[in-house]
Amino acid sequence: MSADNNGLIPASAENHYTVTAADLPLSCPMPGMQRWDSHPKVYLPVAEHGAAQCPYCGAHYTLADTPQ
Predict the structure, then answer these.
(1) CA neighbor of 37 nearest in space, from 59, 10, 5, 6
(2) What pTM, to 2 d.p., does this model score?
(3) Residue 30 near residue 38 (C-beta atoms within 8 A)
(4) At 7, is the pLDDT very low, low, confident or very high (cuts 50, 70, 90)?
(5) CB contact at 8 A, 54 and 61
(6) End-to-end CA separation in angstroms for the chain
(7) Counting C-beta atoms within 10 Å of the first and last residue's C-beta, which end of the chain has fewer, N or C?
(8) Under 8 Å between Cβ of 42 and 28
(9) Pairing of strands 51-53, 60-63
(10) Over the stretch 15-57, which tens digit does the pLDDT of each residue have?
């Protein structure tokens, strides 16, 4: 995934994102994504099931295995 000139990732640019424990609590759009043309921020319970889907844009998030 590439960033724009401001270093921001286009929101909803991909259908799947792999996230880590450092990204929790997870929201869509994520910090570092452009928000001006995106949907309202929504928090997703990816830690509970290992995956979650945004109800607004349909982006699918998967929590990567992290050492405990």
Answers:
(1) 10
(2) 0.72
(3) no
(4) low
(5) yes
(6) 27
(7) C
(8) yes
(9) antiparallel
(10) 899 999 999 999 998 887 776 667 899 999 999 999 999 999 8
